[in-house]
């Protein structure tokens, strides 16, 4: 069957591509959670213990510092140089790093076979892309071979390393090419339809926005309660 050059096809825009990527990430999330649960649970326990130590030591240290009537800079230095506080801070830092980077590293490992196997398959798309009517081709609109799909995925690392500037390049019409599209000479195309963003993609993006607002509000309330509890314990209320 003859192929049509991708330059004459409908190119997927930035938001359609983001919707597909985020759906793929959500589909990988259960496996990431399964593989990372033990390490993340241990890190959370370490973080709670470190916070408990910090909360317990803070009243004593503040009393010593305020009693010595030190300047603000001296107060901060003494607090940070205290061996118990320094150890707790280091443990908290390591724990938060494990909580943050364990899912990220697992995603990096799992995303490679996920993207390569699906993009070179008969679907020419990951499940997220397929759900929103997108497919990946070479510049002539042909199905990618495994090596080309791997090249495209590795090139995507450049888009991440540029702090997502490489991804933001997909905002530019008419071809909406991200940095890794240009490097790997591939294209992301959409179905023949007038609306560049399907109703399903819009619903998925709206759901993400709502979850983000709720999560941000919950985090703000939790931080506010934690700070209030710490102040009350410090002042002896």
Number of extended strands: 2
Structural class: mainly alpha
User: What is the terminal-to-terminal distance?
Assistant: 78 Å
Beta-strand residue fraction? under 5%
Strand arrangement within the widest β-sheet reads 1-2
Q: Which range best describes the helical content: under 10%, 10-25%, 25-40%, 40-55%, 55-70% or over 70%? A: over 70%
Report the average pLDDT across residues.
Answer: 83
Total of DSSP H or I helical runs spanning 4+ residues: 8
Order of helices and strands: HHHHEHHHEH
Q: Uncertain spans, ≥5 residues at pLDDT below 50?
A: none
What is the 3D form?
elongated
- Output the radius of gyration: 25 Å
Largest β-sheet summary? 2 strands, antiparallel
Description:
With 237 residues, the protein is mainly alpha-helical. It is built from eight helices and two strands, in the order ααααβαααβα. It has helices at residues 14-68, 72-81, 83-119, 127-131, 146-161, 165-168, 179-184, 199-235; strands at residues 134-138, 186-190. The mean pLDDT is 83.
């Amino acid at each position: 069957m003859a192929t049509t050059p991708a330059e004459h096809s409908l190119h997927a825009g930035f938001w359609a591509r983001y919707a597909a990527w985020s759906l793929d990430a959500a589909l990988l999330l259960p496996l990431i959670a399964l593989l990372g649960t033990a390490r993340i649970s241990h890190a959370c326990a370490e973080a709670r213990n470190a916070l408990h130590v910090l909360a317990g030591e803070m009243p004593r240290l503040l009393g010593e510092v305020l009693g010595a009537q030190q300047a603000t800079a001296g107060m901060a230095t003494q607090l940070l140089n205290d061996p118990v506080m320094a150890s707790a801070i280091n443990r908290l830092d390591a724990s938060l790093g494990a909580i943050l980077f364990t899912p990220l590293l697992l995603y990096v490992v799992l995303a490679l076979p996920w993207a390569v196997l699906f993009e070179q398959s008969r679907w020419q798309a990951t499940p997220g892309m397929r759900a929103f009517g997108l497919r990946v081709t070479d510049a002539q609109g042909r199905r990618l071979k495994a090596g080309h799909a791997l090249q495209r995925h590795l090139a995507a690392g450049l888009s991440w390393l540029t702090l997502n500037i490489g991804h933001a390049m997909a905002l530019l019409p008419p071809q909406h090419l991200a940095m890794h599209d240009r490097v790997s000479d591939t294209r992301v195309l959409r179905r023949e339809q007038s609306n560049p963003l399907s109703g399903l993609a819009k619903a998925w993006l709206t759901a993400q926005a709502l979850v983000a607002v709720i999560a941000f509000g919950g985090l703000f309330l939790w931080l506010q309660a934690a700070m209030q509890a710490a102040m009350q314990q410090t002042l002896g209320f």
